[in-house]
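User: I'm writing a tutorial on reading structure tokens. Could you give me a worked example: one chain, its sequence, then its tokens, then a sentence or two explaining what the tokens reveal?
Assistant: Sure. Here is the example chain.
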Amino acid sequence: MKPHSIGRFLGIGLRVAGRIAGQRVTANAQAAANAPARPAAASAAQSRAAGQAAGQATRGVAHGVGGFLRPFRRVGGILWLEVTGVFFFLFVVVFARFAWITRLSYAHGPDHMRFLVYAAMVAVFLYLTVTSFWRARRR
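And here are its predicted structure tokens:
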């Protein structure tokens, strides 16, 4: 979606939501001003109707805000995947350093087991790093 069309979409959506909310508020105010004093049963019905109108207005506002935040949700997801990929890459650097230090013991040395653990951790976190950036690019 192009930036100018996003702005146009948001502007139109906000204007329509504002117009609907204004109409409902004025309708409720006029109904309250024109209504004579009623017994408790009638006021309960009026209270229920006002609650339903408020619920509809709340749903409309929630729908409008959800439409406004939809592009940001996509960008936020991409950013989250990239930050996660960088975080995993930090572990790759740390474990690769330890694997490099113990590289001479890879076959039969005293640190043979440590080297294998470090190499496995490098492989796991490198996989997580690459797949995180790959998923971010596919979005």
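What the tokens reveal: The helical segments are 3-34, 40-101, 112-138. The chain has a mean pLDDT of 85.
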